Amino acid sequence: MAASRILTLNEVIIQKQSAFPYAKGELSRLLSHIGLAAKIVNNMVNKAGLEASIIGETNNINVQGESQQKLDVFADETFTKALQASGIVCGVASEEKDEIIVFDDDLSRDGNYVICIDPLDGSSNIDVNVSVGTIFSIYRRITPHGQRISKKDFLQPGIKQVAAGYIIYGSSTMLVYTTGLGTTGFTYEPSIGEFCLSHYFMVTPKSGKIYSINEGNYIKFPLGVKKYIKYCQENDPETNRPYTSRYIGSLVADFHRNLLKGGIYIYPKTASSPNGKLRLLYECNPIAFLAEQAGGLATDGYGNRILEIVPTDIHQRTSFFVGSKNMVEKAEEFMKEYGDGYE
Ligand code: AHM
Ligand code: MG
Hints:
By secondary structure, this protein is an alpha+beta fold. The protein contains seven helices and 15 strands.
């Protein structure tokens, strides 16, 4: 639903502060810092075509075995600095860093929150002007104050998230977040340099017409996924099928479209990626939280709710089925019936 008068991100955060369980203004300040970093990264992403110095690859390979783009590094540094400057965050787990970063300065050491972040998801799309995003997830620390935090502060199941969100750098830039009280979207208004409330209480349709999956991997998919794709393609006027296939290859953009229009996004495990591709902590958990808060569902395709998976590694991967409730449930039915059999 569109807002009737202009409200900025900071105004809305302050308004909602009292409804938040840890209402000390800290989370509000943290979200403001994330909004600030998003503006800086947005500015750089927008200039990518003009600034040869920021497009293309670095010589580094990250912990995922993927080559780092220069903008990956820029986004990682920008968000890390903004989070540290907030004084509320004591550590970060980033897709771009092998190990967790512990903020050991006087300002941050005792911060209440840890953040899991994918600073620039889909960055292989940057050079060709396709939408990319930042995904973040916020947890309370577990380690008592006065002691140094460790990996266990980050290895919490998604149900423990106190907030999560993404920024989509697209045809317009948006910040979408939840603190567990619904999913809310803000659109960046460049003339005033503010994120303005544009999508209050986002509700995703229970059913949609879009399925999003990299069909180039079809041959390696579990049988249940192949059968579900076939179901999506079959003709049935009662269920609005055939569905339409849309896949950008940029999780935030694919999810955002499906959130608004109704649809399902699937990244299953495959014969060559037996644990799936997407990372639980900083890709799947935050997206799952937002999906559920908008009335959708997120599972691993094997009957497990993403938010209840207990992580054992900060870069852990999982198969991922997310989107409109009825569509995820139907895909789950196919997985239950046909499972992993490979044809
Ligand atoms: P990245 O974090 O290295 O950018 O990879 C994650 C991206 C997602 O945005 C996207 O949905 C997926 O990888 C696309 O993978 P594929 O090219 O295998 O379809
Ligand atoms: Mg990513």
